[in-house]
Amino acid sequence: MHRRSLLKGMAAMIALPPDLLSRAAANAAAASDFSRVRPGDPAWPSAESWAKLKEAVGGNLIVVEPPFGACAADPQGAACADALANIHNPFYIGDQPGGTQVSGWLDAWTPAPSAYAVKARSSADVAAAVSFARDNRLRLVVKGAGHSYQGTSNAPDSLLIWTRPMNQVTLHNSFTPQSCEGKIAPSPAVTAEAGAVWIDLYHAVTSEAGRYVQGGGCTDVGVAGLIQSGGFGSFSKGFGAAAGGLLEAEVVTADGAVRIANPCVNPDLFWALKGGGGGSWGVVTRLTLRTHELPAFFGGAWGTIQARSDNAFRHLIERFVGFYAETLFNPHWGETVSFAPDNVLTISMVCQGLDKDQAEAAWRPFFDWANASPLEFSFKSPSGTGVLPARRFWDNGVLPFFVPDPRPGAPKFHGWWRGDQEQVGAFFHGYESVWLPASLLQESGRLADALFAASRPKKVALHFNKGLAGGPDEAIAGAKDTATNPAATTAFALAIIADGEGARYPGLARPPIDEVAARKDARAIDLAAAELLRIAPDAGSYVSESNYFNPLWQTAYWGKNYARLRAVKAKYDPDGLFFVHNGVGSEEWSADGFTRL
Fold first, then answer.
1. pLDDT interval class at 17 (50, 70, 90)
2. Helices in 32-89 by DSSP H: which ranges?
3. Is 239 exposed, middle or buried (0-12, 13-18, 19+ CB in 10 A)?
4. Taking a C-beta distance cutoff of 8 angstroms, is the pair 306, 377 a contact?
5. What percent of the chain has pLDDT over 90?
6. Which candidate, 222, 193, 192, 41, places its Cα nearest to that of 122?
7. Model confidence pLDDT, tens digit, residues 205-221
8. I want to staple 216 with a disulfide (CB 3.0 to 4.6 A). Which of 191, 221, 366, 514 is the partner?
9. How far apart are the C-alpha atoms of 219 and 301, rounded to whole Å?
10. Beta-carbon neighbour count of residue 575 at 10 Å?
11. Angle subtended at Cα 403 by Cα 402 and Cα 406, rounded to the nearest 5 degrees
């Protein structure tokens, strides 16, 4: 047995609560011969059965083609040329039923189209597809925007429920969850269908209505997927996890029922949807989120500092750690700094609720300190701070690093951050994330030593907005009431170490991958992460941005919440219709989700 498979199995058994462990043992013999069907199997649905499903969903049953399949069939053709022209456009990729935001992962997964897809336009379409998959023993996969790094919205020989066409957004001046009248005070809110992406909400809520909804940093990320993963955005330090703002959801469960989930109706399912992982509970068709008063300004700070020696870089890291603890460890500041093997510190941070003078005053001592030591440090790019009216933050044409979707007919407000560009189509060699507890800020020397050591083999990025410590009590309380690993609420940052190469979608003409170099790169990521785990041995990992091969994923992603999640899974999906890699209950299935173990 492969070592990773053995560790995964051991970790899964250890994580099971005693009652579920005994139940699993009792049912093992009966369940072990269950497998889902593939095209060509005798039990694969007949053409007549597929025709009935197509009729039931209003004709919206389609054959799924690989987005770059035309380039394999006709490299000089117009279809290939159009696909290649949009290969770096995340909205184009998301608009393809077979599209995935990244193009695969070394030794892990490769994009592969489903056999068929239901292009869902209503909860009734979704319910019909769920029931068809259940009754015909099909591998089912769910996708909105296809932004899963771990390929959880991708599975060959499956039926895909594609929710991207369901993208309506509705604002509410006063919203009360169903059956919660008199229990929960009404509040301003926004409702989004499952196929909406975050720029749709930011445009409606902020640009048009002058309020704020806590969502994702990448504008093309699906709303439903992010909420189910817990969800962090640029301003989470001030407003909390996106899942903490969920007021109500509509979800189609494995029995084909369309259910409402909120604190008063199906509250256990509601809790699981808030960070319990996408694709495990059902198909979310609609969500309603709380909106907030909009700060007057959003802004940021930037700069790239080169240290002239290893000792100078170690000194620079410790100085920054102290500066962050004293000045930036608060609800105002988020996003990233990174420490690279070439002794470069890169600052790319954002702020909310500060005016121009306040943002500049916050950073002046640090920039002045670095400028005062030209023999140790130099600025590779200009440093600075700036703010703008918060209502204009997501407006196309306002900020130079906001790239508009150039396709004819695309919504005029659709665009993405230039800094997110390298993620589009990336092929990962490795990826790791570690929540760093805020207590480490009191040991600046020890933390700086670990960050320096980690930066020797690989660049380390600290995402301050993905650690909620330092935020307001209300935001932290909201996050604690989700299924997300509680480590997020006591961490000052999420450290991310990742790398790979350019697009390797099937169909593209590319030289063979250099597997030796790629695995060496993956090993460097592991070595860098190990340095941080020395000082944070019990740190968790963020489910959406994590190691595909983590053998202890249950506790890394959900900590003490995993046992409760297993109980919810057993209640709403006892037969495991909904399967994703390293999702709740996935330890009962083969790696491809086709055979119950």
1. low
2. 47-56, 69-73, 78-85
3. buried
4. yes
5. 93
6. 193
7. 999 999 999 999 999 99
8. 221
9. 20
10. 12
11. 150
Take residue 65 and report the two structure tokens written for it. 């083609």
Which two structure tokens, joined as six digits, stand for 207?
């640009």
Separation of alpha carbons 59 and 127, rounded Å: 15
Task: Please state the φ and ψ torsions of residue 245, each to the nearest 5 degrees.
Answer: -95, 0
CA gap 153, 246 in Å, rounded: 22
Pairing of strands 140-143, 116-119: unpaired
- Provide the pLDDT confidence category of residue 7 given band limits of 50, 70 and 90: very low
What pLDDT does residue 29 have?
44
150 contact partners, CB below 8 Å, separation of at least 6: 105, 108, 109, 546, 548, 580, 581, 582
Instruction: Supply 232's token pair.
Output: 């962090």
Q: What is the pTM of this model?
A: 0.94
Structure tokens at 128: 């019909």
Q: Which residues contact 537 (CB under 8 A, 6 or more apart)?
A: none
Average pLDDT over residues 258-278: 98
CB of 544 closer than 8 Å to CB of 229: yes
Structure tokens that stand for 23 in this block: 């139940």
Phi, psi dihedrals of residue 595, rounded to the nearest 5°: -125, 130
Determine the residue type at 185: A
Task: Identify the burial level of 445 via C-beta atoms within 10 angstroms of its C-beta, where 0-12 means exposed, 13-18 middle and 19 or more buried.
Answer: exposed
Buried b / exposed e along 176-192 (16+ C-beta atoms within 10 A)? bbeebeeebeebbbbbb
The predicted model gives 411-438 an average pLDDT of 96
Q: CB within 8 A of 591, min separation 6: which ones?
A: 5, 581
Backbone angles phi, psi at 349, to 5 degrees: -115, 160
Task: For CA atoms 317, 320, 324, 326, give the dihedral sign.
Answer: positive
- Amino acid present at 370: A
- 415 neighbors 320 (Cβ within 8 angstroms): no
Q: Which residues touch 354 (CB under 8 Å, ≥6 apart)?
A: 297, 299, 332, 362, 387
* Encoded tokens for 360: 């500049």
pLDDT value for 397: 86
For residue 19, what pLDDT band results from cuts at 50, 70 and 90? low
Rounded CA-CA distance 543/554 in Å is 10
- CA–CA gap between residue 399 and residue 251 (Å, rounded): 37
Q: What is the mean pLDDT of residues 422-428?
A: 95
Could you read off the pLDDT of 383-398 as tens digits, one per residue? 999 999 999 999 998 9
Mean pLDDT of the chain: 94
Q: Is the pLDDT at 427 greater than 90, yes or no?
A: yes
Task: Tell me the C-alpha distance between 60 and 276, whole Å.
Answer: 29
Q: What would the two tokens of residue 319 be?
A: 């100085």
Q: What pLDDT, on the 0 to 100 scale, is given for residue 32?
A: 55
> If you count DSSP H runs as helices and E runs as strands, how many of each does the chain have, helices first?
19, 20
